[in-house]
Fold this sequence. Notes:
About 35% of the residues lie in helices and about 25% in strands. It contains eight helices and 13 strands. Strands 2-1-3-12-4-13 form a six-stranded mixed β-sheet, with helices on both faces. It has a five-stranded mixed β-sheet with strand order 9-6-10-5-11.
Amino acid sequence: MSFRSIVAFASVLALWSASVAAETIKIGVTPGPHAQILEAVKPIAAKNGLDIQLVEFSDYVVPNAALDAGDIQANSFQNQPYLDNQKADRGYKIEAVGLTVNFPIGVYSKKHKNWAEIPDGGKISIPNDPTNGGRALLLLRDKGAIKLKDGVGFKPTVLDVADNPKKLKFVEVDAAQAPRALDDVDAAVINTNYATQAGLDPVKDPILREDPKGPYVNLIAVRAADKDKPWVKILVDSYHTAEVKEFVLTKFKGAVLPSW
């Protein structure tokens, strides 16, 4: 083989290797911290041959449907109880492949400075999906505002409220609309990503705040058929870096907590 042929072959091989190594995936996120954190992950993943494109969804229902349908290759927005509930209800073949961050959920109010000011019969909005609605009720139970029936697990409903000293009236709203409900209720239980999106401070503003515990750590999910693919490891390893952890701690100042 001539030198010129060798050079030409090497060039073709290099181009072929680059095309094989480079891979583009779409990741579904909700606006706010999840999207911001993945933006910090993108350059790290790019150095390892993975091009990440973010697709933002405004609610908690569509990202799993889009993943299951193959419109995106991964999502980063939910915790394990929520994923388990979606899989049970909709038959999705989706699996968690790595933990991300925890967002302690909070109770916010425009009308009252602390929980003690909530009047008897006060209106409290909670998310209307089973996982986040249950999480809201568990928070109120843990803070002594209500009592729940024994054995309710992680998805209690308002029907499981066994004792309600203030005779609170629960108003169920879509999680994404919770900040807008603040004008119409005495207090609202709001997920951190929607709180920050609405300009609320998830550390200073809540009148009650969830302890950072339990199963509510968020995760990266992919289709079960993809979980062992090389790009999944690159994605998770790129997320689980010291650089991303430092970004989370600096950017969110305790409102979002790294969980790896």
